[in-house]
Design goal:
Largest sheet: 5 strands, mixed
Length: 250
């Protein structure tokens, strides 16, 4: 039955793995284990806990991607932690059918003030699931304040892209620091300014952030002001057109 556990065998009858079946998806079985182990609440609790311990071992604390779906052993589940709030994205039928259990496990593990679901993505349609979003637990404000590598960000977890921000890019944002000090930096397709604001924090002479979305531009300007960055300007424009124009005028 779709959404339930299935065992996968090779044409020779060798056991290959165990995971959630979905005959409506191009991915028939999303593998959870390569051995025929018991997959229950305790199994998922251990996977979630192990992933969070790994993040903390790497030095992440208040704001980070707590669960990376397949990479952490539960395909179709993404969990982002913004200080005292969690944002989850559910991309597979097996997880969706057990959403209440996963919310309970996340509450036990993180004791958040609120959990918000951002499963409003088209890929769910390929799983036979509707797009959805909303509060799953507690109370979640429209904007959640978080600190990413020393940069304060007000994140729109309810309507921002994907899960509100790109927490999986934190280390890349921080990696710009050695190159930015004293330089003029151009951050194209800025979204809410992850790279640009990190460059400003690192001591860039001036940072120009460019994005086509007025909402994103407003958020960049607001977050720059929040951090007291006077060296950041925001341009609302189509990056491709802007670069062609700048090239023609140079």
């Amino acid at each position: 039955i779709s959404g339930e556990l299935a065992r996968v065998y090779s044409s020779k009858g060798d056991f290959l793995g165990k995971g959630f079946l979905n005959t409506a998806s191009k991915i028939f079985v999303r593998i959870l284990a390569r051995e025929d182990v018991t997959i229950d609440r305790a199994f998922f609790k251990e996977r979630l806990g192990a992933a969070d311990r790994a993040r903390r071992d790497l030095g992440f604390t208040g704001c980070y991607r707590a669960f990376f779906a397949e990479a952490d052993g539960i395909p179709g589940l993404i969990v982002d932690k913004y200080e005292d709030w969690l944002v989850v994205q559910v991309l597979s039928l097996g997880i969706d059918k057990r959403k209440t259990m996963f919310v309970d496990l996340l509450v036990d593990l993180f004791q958040p003030k609120g959990i918000y679901e951002r499963s409003d993505v088209g890929v769910r349609l390929k799983e036979g699931l509707p797009e959805t979003k909303g509060v799953l637990y507690g109370v979640v404000p429209d904007l959640v304040r978080a600190s990413e590598a020393g940069v304060l960000m007000d994140v729109d977890v309810k309507n921002g892209q994907k899960t509100g921000s790109f927490l999986d890019q934190q280390e890349n944002h921080a990696a710009i620091a050695p190159y930015a000090k004293g330089k003029d930096v151009l951050d194209c397709f800025s979204h809410t300014g992850g790279f640009g604001l990190a460059a400003a924090k690192a001591g860039a002479h001036h940072v120009t952030c460019v994005d086509l979305s007025q909402t994103a531009c407003d958020r960049i300007a607001s977050n720059a002001a929040l951090n007291g960055f006077a060296n950041v300007s925001v341009v609302k424009a189509d990056v491709f057109q802007l670069l062609r124009q700048e090239h023609a005028e140079s």
